[in-house]
Amino acid sequence: MRTRADIDIREARSDDWPAIWRIISPTIRAGETYALAPDMSEDEARAYWTGPDRRTFVAQASEAIVGTYYIRANNAGGGAHVCNCGYMTAAAAAGQGIARAMCAHSLEVARAMGYRAMQFNFVISVNVRAVRLWHDMGFVTVGVLPEAFAHPSKGYVDALVMSRRL
Amino acid sequence: MRTRADIDIREARSDDWPAIWRIISPTIRAGETYALAPDMSEDEARAYWTGPDRRTFVAQASEAIVGTYYIRANNAGGGAHVCNCGYMTAAAAAGQGIARAMCAHSLEVARAMGYRAMQFNFVISVNVRAVRLWHDMGFVTVGVLPEAFAHPSKGYVDALVMSRRL
C-alpha cells in the first residue's frame, strides 16, 4: 500500500455533493459492501449519506475529492455514546491509504465529539480488505451475523460487527 | 409464568395508536431496555413504532390492548432477507406470556413474509427476562457489544445481538 502524504480531510459542504455521489454511487449500485438498496435514488443516497443525524467529511488529494465518510451516533438514548461511521473511496484511488486516513481522522473526530466507542454494524465478511484495515485500526470482531448478507456473486455470507474503544 | 389462552394478535389500525402509546411511552421514558431517546415526543415515537418501513401488531386480551410489536427488514439491499422486531408489553400485563405470544406470532409473520432470519440488534444484557425469553424462543447470542448501553441506574452494560433462522 502506498500512503499519500497529501490527503486533506475536511467537513463536506453542500456543493461537494456531486463529487460525493460520483464516489458512492458505484459502490451502492454494486451492492457488494453495504446493505443499502442498490437501486436507491440519488436523493435517497444524499439523505442517507449527508442526513441531519450525522456529519459528513470528504478526503481530498491533489485537489480532487477521492473519499468520503460520515459519523453519527449509532443509537439514541442509552446507546448514544457509541458512534458509527461509513467510508467510501473512489475506485480510481483505491490502495493509496485513503480509507485508512479517513478512519484515523474519524477516530479523532469521534473522541472530540465525546464518543466512548466506535462500532461498525455490518462489515461484509468477504470484504477482506476492509476487515483487515479495521483490524489494523484497532477494531475487534464482537459479533458474527450468520449469512446476514446476500452477496450478488458469492451468495449468503456472514456480516461482522466490529468495535473499538476510543 | 401464567400463559393466557385468550391472547389475540392482529395488525394494528391507526385508531389503535392511543392504546399503543399508553404501552410504549412508559418503557421509552424509563430508558432501561431500548436505545431510544427517553424524551422523544409522541409524534417521534409514532413515526418510529408505526413507520412505513414496518408492520405493527397489537396483542389483545379480554378486549384490552396489552402488547404491541413491529416487524421490519433489518437492512436494505443485501441485508433485506433478515428481519428485526421490537416488542413491548403493558406493565400491568407482565408475566402473562404476552411477549412470548407476540414473538411466536412474529416468527410466523416473518416466515410468511419470506424472511430467512430474525435479528435483535440491541438486547440489553441486564434485561434478564428478555434474554431468557429470546433464548427460549430459539435465539442465540451472536454478538456482545461491550458497554454499549448506558443504563440509567446500572451504568454502562453490554448489549447483545441475538439471532435465529426461520
Please characterize this protein's 3D structure.
- The model of chain A has no long low-confidence stretch (mean pLDDT 96).
- Chain A has four helices and seven strands.
- Chain A has a domain at 8-118: Gcn5-related N-acetyltransferase (GNAT) (Aminopeptidase).
- Chain A has a seven-stranded mixed sheet with strand order 1-2-3-4-5-7-6.
- With 166 residues, chain A is an alpha+beta fold.
- In chain A, a hairpin with a 2-residue loop joins β2 and β3.
- Chains A and B meet through β5, β6 and β7 of A and β5, β6 and β7 of B.
Main interface: chain pair and counts: A-B, 38 and 37 residues
Q: For the largest beta sheet of chain A, what order do the strands appear in spatially?
A: 1-2-3-4-5-7-6
Distance, first to last CA of chain A: 25 Å
Helix share bin of chain A: 25-40%
Oligomer state equals homodimer
How many runs of DSSP E, i.e. beta strands of chain A? 7
List the helices and strands of chain A in order: EHHEEEHEHEE
Give the mean pLDDT of chain A.
Answer: 96
**Helix segment count of chain A?**
4
